[in-house]
Amino acid sequence: MFAVENGLQGDPRLKAISDAIRVVPHFPKTGIMFQDITTLLLDPVAFKHVVDIFVDRYKHMNISLVAGVEARGFIFGPPIALAIGAKFVPLRKPGKLPGRVLSEEYELEYGSDRLEMSVEAVKSDERALIIDDLVATGGTLSASINLLERAGAEVVECACVVGLPKFKGQCKLKGKPLYVLVEPREFDDITLYN
Amino acid sequence: MSENEVKDPRIDGIKTKIRVVPDFPKKGIMFQDITTLLLDPKAFKDTIDLFVERYRHMNISVVAGIEARGFIFGAPIALAIGAKFVPLRKPKKLPGEIIFEEYELEYGSDRLEMHVEAVDSGDRALVVDDLIATGGTLCAAMNLLRRVGAEVVECACVIELPELNGRERLEGKPLYVLVEYR
């Protein structure tokens, strides 16, 4: 579900957020129009809009845990967690987390990767939100959902700043709702001069 | 912080939330695990508040966070003080035009990258990471910022390992830490 479908139609903050994202063509390889959120982070007002919109949505949903996917999920997740009084749980590349971890493999275009979570991060009866900057195939988010569910948490929703249009409507990921702020920007002449 | 300063009462609460994991990632290293701090909303908030209280009136225009744990502390600080957040990243993650700095590891070296257009002269920068050990990464971060003409006002870390003398690598730049681990 996109923000515009859920009451934020015409909200000027969404345009400000979208305008602040830079499209870099053919990164990391030919054919990929990379949605660069670092330019959004250079705009404190737009960055704050992102956090405010997510906080407004989640502050009354009894979220006890915000899980952020390494590394860009570490930028958006902690401010949300702090504002809603939830714990922050980093979901990390292999070998980074000390102590006992759960590990979940997921597919890449070529090969696979793994995501890890500390087993002690999740207590019983946790209601979790998963955050990443962008959702494309949903592979990373699906792996994240698996990690949290294997640890016994209830995943309430997945949230991303940018998402492909296929996630409109009631599209779910592994049965979990997805909330997205904006669609990917197109690369055009305007972007060149941004 | 010096011995003469009265310690903020929030500091002890923060220190107790940091888990020390022996022999990670390899034997002999006492790993300072901040993930347990992040599991305590009050202690995490106290950590950010302490930094924000220090920096909100210092006219900081850029908070540079070192990948990846520097993102966790740097981004909330940037938001709270109204500064730009600039991620300093491992190689090949940033899509735009970058500059890089190499720094030494125990075996070999690594690189830190920054988007050139993110920062310029006239920016007053704060560098944030979870921990300072030898100071190699922070030094690389400072170099990146200085090369584009920014002024590095201070480096801020949650934890310092003073026995590794990282402070000396910062070439006189001030370092502010909340917790020391000896």
From TrEMBL, chain A:
Q: What is its main location?
A: cytoplasm
- Pfam families per UniProt: Pribosyltran
Q: Which domain of life is it from?
A: Eukaryota
What keywords are assigned to this protein? Cytoplasm, Glycosyltransferase, Purine salvage, Transferase
Subcellular location field:
Cytoplasm
Give all residue intervals belonging to the Phosphoribosyltransferase domain. 46-169
EC numbers, comma separated: 2.4.2.7
Coiled-coil regions listed: none
Q: Which SUPFAM superfamilies match?
A: PRTase-like (SSF53271)
Its annotated pathway reads: Purine metabolism; AMP biosynthesis via salvage pathway; AMP from adenine: step 1/1
Q: Which reaction does it catalyse?
A: AMP + diphosphate = 5-phospho-alpha-D-ribose 1-diphosphate + adenine
Q: Does the keyword Glycosyltransferase apply?
A: yes
Q: How does it assemble?
A: Homodimer.
Indicate the family of this protein: Belongs to the purine/pyrimidine phosphoribosyltransferase family.
Q: What is this protein called?
A: adenine phosphoribosyltransferase
Organism for this UniProt entry: Camelina sativa (False flax)
From TrEMBL, chain B:
Its UniProt entry gives the catalysed reaction(s) as: AMP + diphosphate = 5-phospho-alpha-D-ribose 1-diphosphate + adenine
Q: In which pathway does it act?
A: Purine metabolism; AMP biosynthesis via salvage pathway; AMP from adenine: step 1/1
Subcellular locations according to the entry: Cytoplasm
Q: What is its main location?
A: cytoplasm
Q: Which residues form the signal peptide?
A: none
Keyword match Cytoplasm: yes
Show where the Phosphoribosyltransferase domain sits.
39-163
* EC number, as in UniProt: 2.4.2.7
Q: Which UniProt keywords apply?
A: Cytoplasm, Glycosyltransferase, Purine salvage, Transferase
Q: Which GO terms describe its molecular function?
A: glycosyltransferase activity
Q: Tell me which stretches of the chain form a coiled coil.
A: none
What family is this? Belongs to the purine/pyrimidine phosphoribosyltransferase family.
**Quaternary structure annotation from Swiss-Prot or TrEMBL:** Homodimer.
What is the protein name for this chain? adenine phosphoribosyltransferase
Originating organism: Camelina sativa (False flax)
Q: Which gene encodes it?
A: LOC104737252
